[in-house]
Amino acid sequence: MSLYMNQKVSDGSSGWAIEVIRSRRRTLALELKEDGRVLLRVPRWCSGQEIRRFVEQNRDWIERKLRENEERREALAAIPKLTEEEMRALQKRGRAVFPARCAVYAPLLGVSYGRISVRRQHSKWGSCSGKGNLNFNCLLLLAPESVLDYVVVHELCHRREMNHSKRFWALVESICPDFREARRWLRENGGALLARLP
Fold this sequence. Notes:
alpha/beta; four-stranded mixed β-sheet; globular
């Protein structure tokens, strides 16, 4: 499916603009991005008049979501940053904790792994390379242990399934039956953790 930007619908009085993306879809849908951009996905045939009518019908939702997004960004900006010394201490502790947790879970999954790195990352909690090297975000040490273990298991499962298929999630669930709670915790609290990066 090819997508392309073709216009912006702006609201002069409120100061916000919507990026319109035309595609082969059949319905109109609004989406608010993390960076505050508002996207409106529309069918290729949709007229400007229909777009403006849809935006007007959803004006309250747009303004509420933009307000909530701004409040969230302000709250995250107010979170105290970790010092360089604290970051170094977290990474040092991570170099002991992550290998120990991998050593517990890898045999249960029947997998091996390569090098383990502990980094400060702004967007990823963990990763697994094609060669089996594992990478973990040191900020996970500030999360509940069940969340840290979920990320370790998630990355180790990629040693058997380098995808996010049903088989992959079934494998994760076989070791972490409440993995959905850990994922929810990261969705709800991960931004606050990442905001602590210096």
